[in-house]
Design goal:
This protein has 142 residues and is mainly α. It is 48% helix and 6% strand.
């Protein structure tokens, strides 16, 4: 099950991606990157937590689930904007200069400045995931 449908993406006010096929491609890639970063927190195969259940749970669970979906939507838009949906693809998009013969072209673009480490996640997405506690590496003391 996808973390975010195209309909949900649109209902939450996101408009950058208009093609559902492109969205589905980016959403699958975003799922992979978010799963790795959050240690598969909402992954259906792992079944430790349910995104569907959290959307109808306590106030905190609903908030966390909605912010998680928002992070996935932002990651999809990030992939669309940089033109790649893998960490390697993103790194390859960050062409800073090229020289052909006597012609030299240099760009001021720095995609890596918007990318969290080598994860392929946008820094805004990481900020959301951190604020809802899905990037912590703490050990339960209970």
């Amino acid at each position: 099950m996808a973390y975010l449908t195209f309909k949900e993406y649109q209902q939450n006010g996101f408009t950058m991606i208009t093609d559902e096929t492109i969205f589905d491609q980016h959403e699958r890639a975003a799922e992979t990157q978010v799963d790795i970063t959050t240690k598969f927190y909402y992954n259906a195969d792992y079944a430790a937590h349910s995104l569907v259940d959290d959307l109808t749970g306590t106030q905190w669970q609903v908030f966390r689930a909605k912010q998680f979906k928002r992070a996935v939507a932002l990651q999809c838009e990030y992939f669309d904007e940089v033109g790649a949906d893998t960490p390697i693809g993103i790194a390859n998009q960050d062409l800073s200069s090229i020289e052909i013969g006597r012609t030299h072209v240099q760009s001021n673009s720095n995609v890596n400045a918007t990318n969290f480490g080598k994860t392929g996640l946008a820094t805004g997405v990481v900020a959301i995931l951190a604020q809802i506690g899905l990037m912590s590496k703490a050990v339960s003391y209970r």
